[in-house]
Amino acid sequence: MCIVTTLNQGLRNGGGIGDILRAPSSQEPLFAARVVYDMLFFFIVIIIVLNLIFGVIIDTFADLRSEKQQKELILKNTCFICGLNRSAFDNKTVSFEEHIKCEHNMWHYLYFIVLVKVKDPTEFTGPESYVYAMVKDRNLDWFPRLRAMSLAADEGEGEQIELRSLQNQLENTQLVVKALSQQLSQLRDQVFFFLSLLLSIYDYLISLCDNYACLSQW
Ligand SMILES: [Zn+2]
């Protein structure tokens, strides 16, 4: 009973158990022990233990709040259907808002699932029977994971532009190579001409020397 009373009265008073107990006279023999007891109760129970409990509660609330914020952030910036991030639609023909409103509207997907569930299977179109089989197997492969048709089209266009520029570069390089080969053949012709000229000069000089030698013998 003593422990229960101590906790009950001590925790509900700001200064601890000292507030509810009889104030001892300084003449009493146990005055010092009583002061130490009151102070220890105040420090250990009121300051440390209660603040630990409050800290745990506040921490838990902070964790819950940050988790909620994280979830809201993901819901706001990620497509519910394909999981693509808002940044994936930067500098693209379609914006993130248009994407989640028109291309990957989650309610349209839900309506489609409801449609294949209530429609007569004999009247299914090709895509409807495909999705019906997938939904029946609880298979989610028919959802576009991390891809969107508009982004794929953009990428295709980008690739075509890149291919065209590469082709242009190749054509330019071929022209340059052709011009260089022409210059090279001209240079070769000139070198041959020069060499033949040198050879004829050399022959002429040799014949001159021979003539000179003959004349000197005479
Ligand atoms: Zn999407």
TrEMBL record:
Give the Gene3D superfamilies listed for this entry: 1.10.287.70
The main location is membrane
Keywords annotated in UniProt: Coiled coil, Membrane, Transmembrane, Transmembrane helix
At the top level, the lineage of the source is Eukaryota
Q: Which residues cross the membrane?
A: 39-62
Membrane topology value = Multi-pass membrane protein
Task: Cite the Ion transport domain residue spans from the record.
Answer: 11-68
Task: Indicate yes or no for the key word Transmembrane.
Answer: yes
Coiled-coil regions listed in the entry? 163-190
- Please give one Pfam family short name: Ion_trans
Q: Which GO terms describe its cellular component?
A: membrane
Q: Where in the cell?
A: Membrane
State the name under which the record lists this protein: Ion transport domain-containing protein
What organism is the protein native to? Answer: Ranatra chinensis
